[in-house]
Amino acid sequence: MAKALYIDYQKCTGCRLCELVCAVSHDGISNPARSRIRVIKWEAEGLYIPMSCQQCQEAPCMNVCPVKAISRDEEMGRVYVDYDVCIGCRACVGVCPFGAMSFNTIDKKVLKCDLCDGDPQCVRFCEVKAVDFVEADEVCILKSRNAAERVSAAGKEASALEAQL
Description:
Low-confidence stretches: none
Number of helices: 5
Strand order of the largest sheet: 1-8
Shape: elongated
Structural class: alpha+beta
Order of helices and strands: EHEEHEEHEEHEH
CATH topology of the largest domain: Alpha-Beta Plaits
CATH class of the largest domain: Alpha Beta
Oligomer: single chain
Number of domains: 2
C-alpha cells in the first residue's frame, strides 16, 4: 500500500531541520533553498506550517507539463519528475495549488518532494513528529481525529467561559 506524508503543523516548532536534512540528502549542501519541504511562518498567528508535495491524485503539475516529464509512480504513490526530460519551463511551479514546487535557479530544475524513495529524511529527523510517513488511508483518519480534538477543546473552552458568566 502507498504511503504519504502526514504533516501536523500544530506540532511544528519552526526549527527547519526538515529543510536542511532534505537539502543535504538530495544535493549534499545545507541550503534550505534546495529543500523539497518548506516551513512557512505565519507571523501574526505564531505558526509554522511545513509544506510539501501532496502527491495529488489529479496532479495539476503532471497535467500541465508540456513534455510529460512529470508522472505518477503508482507503486510508491508519488508524483515524480524525470529530470532527463524536464525542460525547466516552470509551468508546474505555477499551477501547484499548495506552492509545494519550486525552481532551483542554480541547477535550473524544478524541485518537489519525491518521498526520498520511500524513506523520507524529514520524517526521520523531525523530533516532534510534525512530519510523519503513514499509510495513505491513515492520513484522513489522523486529520479527522486532529480536527475533532480541536473542536472538543474549543467546546470545553466555550463551556468554561460560559460558566464564568
